[in-house]
Amino acid sequence: MTNILSIPGVKVSQKDYHQIIVRGNGLEKFNNTIEEKTSIKPPSKNLEVKYDLNYLFAKNSFDQWSLILTEKKDHNQILNLVSSINTNENMLASDYSYGQVYFEIEGENKDSFLNQLTHFDLREEKFPKSTMAQTVIARIECSIYNLGNKYIITCNKSFEDYFQQRLKDTASLN
Amino acid sequence: MSAINNKCEYISKNQIKITFDGKTYSAFEGDTIASALLRNNIRLVGRSFKYHRPRGIYTCGIEEPNALVQIISEHNEPNTRATIKRIYDGMEITSQNRWPSLRYDFGAINNILSPIFSAGFYYKTFMGPKGFWKNLYEPLIRRSAGLGKPPKNFRSKSTHQYHNSDIVIIGAGLSGLAAAKKFINTKYKVLLIEQDSYLGGVLKNSNKVKTINGLTPQEWISETEELILNSKNITILKNTLVTTYNFTNHLIALEDKFAGKKIDLNKSELTLHKIRTSNTIITNGHIERFISFRNNDLPGVMLASSFEKYIHRYGVVPEKEPVIFTNNSSSLSLLKKLISLGCKPKAYVDSRKKDNIETEIKKILKDKEIPFFSDAEIEGCDGNKKVETITIRQGKSFNKLKSSMLCVSGGYNPDIHLFTQSKGLVKWDKNILSFKPDTPFQKTITLGSTSGNYNFKKLCDEINEKLSIFKTKKVSLDINLNVPNKFSIKELWETKKKNNSNWSKSFIDLHNDVTTKDLKQAITEGFDRIEHLKRYTTNSMGTDQGKISSINSLAIVSKILKKEISEVGTTTYRPPYAPLSFAAIAGRSTYEFYDPERKTSIHSWHLKNNAVFEDVGQWKRPWYFKASENETMHQAVQRESKMLRENAGILDGSTLGKIEIKGRDALEFMNLMYTNAFSKMKPMTSRYAMMLGEDGMIKDDGIICKISDQHFIATTTSSGAPKVLADMEEYLQTEWPHLQVYLNSITEQFSTFNISGPKTREIMMKVFPDIDFSNDAFPFMTFKNFDYKETKIRIMRASFTGELGYEIYIPPKFGLELWEEIFSCGKEFNLIPYGTETMHLLRAEKGYIVIGQETDGTVTPIDLNYNWMIGKNKKDFIGKRSLSRPDTSREDRKQLVGLSPINKKDIIEEGQHIVELNELPKKIKNPIKYLGHVSSGYHSPNLNHSIGLAMIRGGKNLLGQKFFVTATGKTKNIPVEIVNPVFIDPENKRLTS
Fold this sequence. Notes:
Chain A is of the alpha+beta class. In chain A, 23% of the residues lie in helices and 38% in strands.
């Protein structure tokens, strides 16, 4: 974990997570494969996020899921998991661990801080806890997961420097 | 003539200094530039736009048409409204649009010549002679146009803030605060926006209101503000002006973060609020309008309510003995205030008949022996750069009074700018003689004087009724007034001139120097539609959008046309409500954040090794690497190309698009998407493939890796990756929903290195000693996966340079480490890094095409002689039918060929034409036959002469023929021979070595 910034009411840190993007039809066989390989039942509602201390599992769209593993693991373990999911010919699992970066944003002013970078409506009634969204933050495509007391934001690794700079710049101008 | 300072709780006692036109003045914290200048008896503050007439301070707010100044201490910001810009210690201000000085302005000659500068002057005058417009008129007009000088170059740090709310209340005056009070601690998320630094609006601008709910206005404001601040659901934005009301209740508001403070260049000076709301409540009040009369623009003429606001809001009485001129009842509060301060107006001129004038006014005037002129009007003012004498017409008699200030009130307009921006419809109200909101187009509610309700007593009922759609408690407002609650007005837009003089003007638009005579002339010339007239005269087209005068012009036009004002209609008020800077609009999307940047995992190494970058989409890609400080791009590219063909080179190809394709029907899908046939392709082999549009034209290319019939990996061009993925998804979801195939973009999941050159195998064997790189074990266009440290890598044998080559795919976390390892191992083999420019040169030598360079959306694979890539036996693929159209199989289509100069010293430039003439005429009179164009042109260090790839009509049949290539800035063309596009290793010996 790397602390990116801390200002009154907002703390941003960068995390080292693993991620697997899974595509499939979400039917019984799909669910069984996921449960068998990960011991986690995939969320069934669109944009729903299930999470605990070790993982975060979200349904991104009608046929796409993202599984974020928060525990540090050997990369080969992740690749083996990807391979074993891919044994089901009706599914595609791709390793997204190191092609993405992960930011955790917490604090009472996190909404107003983020709304300097995104138009996205973060109000509880529009973006409830345990849901996710794919939107534009600081003019780049990101996924944002609402875990109640904090948000997890992921974006492509190639934007890592740019995104960090935008976060720091926003904080410095506050 | 002198101003007096009065007690005022909104102004600090701290004295500060400002300079205006180089002279230093004392003022107080909280002053605007205008209040500070008035406090120092400065009346002349600027020159008018067209005639350079002397101008003073006309209003006390955003509606100001005259007092525009330049702020030297804020990077020379021009056209700043002195009436709203708050001062700070050390602020430097200058007047604008004058030379050499404000008092003695050379441009005032325009006023002398003004009789010829009437409406339409520019349109009529600058028609000829031919050539004068470009060489004389336009440069001259450009030099003299505008008011202030452009600002200095500066780096703004303006920010944007997005909001999503249930209710936005615009204006925190009496109506706005009362409305906000209804929503305290309710379920609604509310934004209360006020352009001033204080809440209260009209309550702080005059003493019309005595008490609210038993409290003084100030006590009520403080109590309400505290309740709002303590509420959980209402946010107050002060110093924030709503400038724009777009569709779907989208509002733009500009916050001045340094109102009354010196700008800190490290902080955000402006914040542009972008607000999406469910409901908008507009309570931004009304704007007083003026009356047109002779010389109604002289410094010293000021709107009556503005004069009153200077007293209440800023504690400055601009003049002890002004003349008051009105056509309505609202000036009573000003009269009373002046009396209470021991000031005595020089005269009170009311256009209403004596019987219609309020008894209280008449009584005060009588008791205080103030000269009273009823059923009268101001004929005009006179004076040198200021009001000195005022002429009053009463019946047939004229009275001339000496006074330096004239307070004018022509009535009030509800401030409908934002309502009309929201596309709400307005209607004419005969009682207030103005347009007021009628039918909203969006979820918009107007309250108080914005809705045309000038009756304080009816405000409470209006709020409770209009806001009853929200589930909130009723608000109670018991308002006691210092003035009668009735608003009475007599129609008066312009007064008659005693004598007709060409130099005494009666202005209708002070900002753009438009006179009432201009309106009449425009109608005479046939511009009788209000929108045409507006453009012909430029009336209300200034940055103030005629806030104090546009209704007056409609009324004057309606009188001339003998129509009702409602028939004439209104012009359109357009956003922004008041000017906002480009810096605010741009926000942080400037300079270092102009465009998001994408970097590969090797970026830091490139920086350390003197890479010069080029932008490819948002990616930063090494263009070439400088071996020394003085090495030019040409030298670097020549060096890199030669070194690679002799030894080895490595390119960071991480930006290449990569898509993973998997599913039961993946094979069928790939056969449909690409021209190539994949059915007989063996697993773990790869193939160069081409994707067409439905028109048969090449859209993208890449290498397809087949893991199995159900699993593929496709590479795409760097910039084409998102589009290719989107197209694939679209076809799957719309055209072939029966196919069970899933796609993931894995561009970012792998760093990709392209290593090639004759010594590549030796380097690879050193980096990966356990892998057999022999031709038999690892043939061309195959790939394998290997364990590498705690991850896996994929190595593919492929090349884009024509040399023996491999592509390595590795997760980005391990990319830099492997890259450095390759360099460490490659040192003894003279391995060099190379950039995209060298890559382009090398592939051109080999005759490989680049999408977007050899192709331009009109090129088919057949045009490139890539027929071998088309699966002839395939049932279908995208673009198949189009390839059999007569037009796509024409023999004379532009086709890919190579160009070799006859004289090997000649340079073939990219983009040049190919022609049959060896020399072009100096003046081209007849079209020259054009055969095609050079799509790629480089100097090949390996052939030691220039080479080119070209798209030429019927090119395939022209091999061996001689043509000419045009050259920049020359009429003599370069003779070239049409050759095979493969210049190096046509037998592919190097590639498969």
